[in-house]
Structure formats: structure tokens, C-alpha cells
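Troubleshooting log. The previous run stalled partway through. Resubmitting the same two chains, unchanged.
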Amino acid sequence: MISKSKIKLINSLSQKKFRDETRLFVAEGTKLVMDLIPAFQCSILAATSAWLKDHEGLKADETIETGTDKFNKISNLKSPQGVLAVFIKPEYHWNVQELSHKLTLALDDVQDPGNLGTIIRIADWFGITDIFCSESSVDAFNPKTVQATMGALARVKVHTVNLVEFLQNCQSELPIYGTFMDGENIYSKKLTQQGIIVMGNEGNGISTETGKLVTERLLIPNYPVGQITSESLNVAVATALICAEFRRRI
Amino acid sequence: MISKSKIKLINSLSQKKFRDETRLFVAEGTKLVMDLIPAFQCSILAATSAWLKDHEGLKADETIETGTDKFNKISNLKSPQGVLAVFIKPEYHWNVQELSHKLTLALDDVQDPGNLGTIIRIADWFGITDIFCSESSVDAFNPKTVQATMGALARVKVHTVNLVEFLQNCQSELPIYGTFMDGENIYSKKLTQQGIIVMGNEGNGISTETGKLVTERLLIPNYPVGQITSESLNVAVATALICAEFRRRI
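Second attempt completed without errors. Output:
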């Protein structure tokens, strides 16, 4: 039986304010919950009896068996899959020294939860273990973002930082890459396997303040060069193209 | 003044059934409408007086001035921009001969309207002028798809075809590329600038029947190779990575 107060708590976690207060977040669906359970402490595992019967021995502080009707009250999915988990938000630590051996993503005010989720999935695909988001970026623990990561959130650490200060800290150790209209063709530019790749906001790109800290200006060329086409690529698509080109060079 | 019957017509166009019956589709927002007006015949241009004052001389079969309240009744956007246009769906013709000089996309049952819109935008970016969708794919004139194209729909022709028959027709003239788990690393494989690139469904990839017609099996490698990461990339992201690699080779 799931209590009214638990239903209220779970529903409240769609709002950042309550996620911040409680340090909890929600994930739904069999594959996602199974991917995240080994990575995060599970505070509440709420599922139908049928689901629990099929998935025994999962570690959770509290397991709640619910009827399908009650379950649908806490589900955010169009087709509820009978399982929802509340996890404790992780606390990650980092230092510049560690980053100096890796390729890392920095997001300057990405706003769309789906885009952020897709970027986390892309980072995972390309072996990028850390993403640093500016404080005004959409929250990585937004339920829409969590769902869009398709489980990649278990393997990629998402940090929220003052992005300008973060880049200032990294500047002496690492090249800082970013895409600009007047950048150098990524396919002919020298790229390193250590560095920070900054991606900008959906509408406005990289902010002026952040842009000043970018040391390597890149351009993703369109085709045929100079032809009028779409003015820009979706930020997740651009992230994938850049990460692929860094990794292709290995 | 916009009549009740016009409001009803416009709202009905969110459903494929009515788009098919009337051969009309809807686009919203200043940039999108301005991009599409030169490309398609505009049946109805519905806008607030303020918007029309700022955008004079646009060609439409019928221009309807509406108050903001009435406009909000036809708008599908969270932040209505005061302009919505109803366009006549284009009728495109094609032949294999023409395609034999180009790179073309074929979509095998892409279901998400946002993904299709993003793929159309990617095609535009990479100079791909034609996309062939299987009959069970999401409709390219779905309002969510149209919005997600960000205007690229004006430059990319989207055809709906029996995909198996289409590929059978192309087979003798063109290589047919597709991505599979057991494909050849796209970064080391020989690629041509003429061909059909088949992209599969979000959950199931390329169907068995379609897969049999693929002559060149590709793989997008993850990094580090062999490491457990996300099992797949979003279909729009994968499309972008493949198109970029074809174009980079030029």
C-alpha cells in the first residue's frame, strides 16, 4: 500500500524546488530503474506486485507494493510500466588534476530537459565521464532528463557549477573548445584527447562571458559549404558531431 | 475576425486523418512561417493585427486578422507568437535516375515527431534534398515535426513510400547503407557520395525485411571500443553522425 503522503512526495519531485530540498529524484520504467539501482541509493522502490515478483532481491531503503490504480497516480509515463524508483541525488567530487587527463563536456545554459538527457547519453557513448552544467542550465535530475538519458545517468557524473569560475580553474591545465560561426573547421583543426568542450544554449549559443574563456574556436561545417541551409544544428546533435570527431582521431 | 469553422478546421489539422483529407498542414511562429511561405502555397495566414503590421505583403489565399484571445485558441505553442499559417501539402515527384547522383535518406518507421523534425533539419544542414519515409513512419506534416524542422521543411522534400519497393527500385543504381551492430566501422569503411542511407525505428532499428536490401552495413563505434555504455544513440543523433562522415570525406 502506498500512502497519500508518499504519493504527494513522489509527485512533488517533478519540481526542482522539492528535489533540491529533499535531495531526491525519480526514475521510471523497468530498464531505467534496473540501470540506475546499482549506481544510486534507492530510497523508495514503488512497484506493482507483478513487477516485484519478476524482479526480486533489488536493494531499496523501502519497497512499496501498489495496485495498478494507485501506481498510475504516481506515474508520469504515457504507458506506465509498473515500477518507479526514488533515488538519493549523488554528491560528486572533482578536481582539475583528474580532468586534465580526459575529455569533458561543459554546458552553458542548455534549457531543454530532453536535450540534456540526450547529451548525457551521447557523453556515455563517447566515454566522457563528467559533464559540468552552468547554474542556469536545466536540472539533470528533472524527470524528463532522467528518462531521456536511457540509463546513461548511471555512468556519467553531472555537476552543477559556476561555469565561468570552473573554466577559469581549468584554463591553465586544459584547452577549452567551443563552436562559433567564425571558428575553424573541426575536420581540419588539431584536436587533443584532453580538454573541455563547451556547448551553448539552444537559442543563443555560448554566452559572451563564457566565450572569452574558450581558447580553441571550432566550426561544424555544413554542406555544400556556403549554401543556405538550416542556420544551426540542435545542441545535442552538435555535441554528438564534436565528440565523434575527437574520438575518431584516436 | 476568425470564424468558428476556421478555428475548428485549424485545430483539426493536429490529426493526420484531417491533414490527409484536406491536404493541409499548420505551421506557427514568425521564423517558421516566414521560412515556409516562399516554399509552400499558403491557404490561410492567421495573425494578430500587430503581427500583420510588422509583416506586410505576404502571399496567402486568405489573410485573417484576429484578436490575441482568439489567436490563442488556435495556437499550439506555449508562448504564442501571433502568427499561424495553414499551407497546402506539396506533391513531390522523384525518379531513381535523379537520386543516382545524390545522397538520400530513407527512414524505416521513425515514430517520434521530434526525431523526424530533427532529422529533416540535419538533412538540410548536410545538403540532403530528399527523405523517403516508410508508410508507417510518423507524418512529416505533424505540427510537432513541422515545428522541430525549424524551417528546414522548406528545403527538404519528404516523401512517403512503400520503403521495400522503393529500395528495390534503387538497388541496381545505388549502394544502400544502414547501421547494424555487426556493421563495419564507418570511420574506416569506403563511402560514396551517391547512395541511400537507411535509418531505423527508435526501439527496433531497421526491420528485417528492409535490412535484407541494405548492401553496405555500417557501425558507429562507441568509445572506448568494447566498454559498456549506452546501448544505442538516439536515431537523430545517429543520422547526424553518419551524414557528417559521408560529407567529411569530400
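Takeaways: The mean pLDDT of chain B is 95. The interface with chain A takes residues 114, 118, 121-122, 124-127, 150-152, 155, 187, 220-224, 227-234, 236-237, 240-241, 244-245, 247-248, 250 of chain B (CB under 8 Å).
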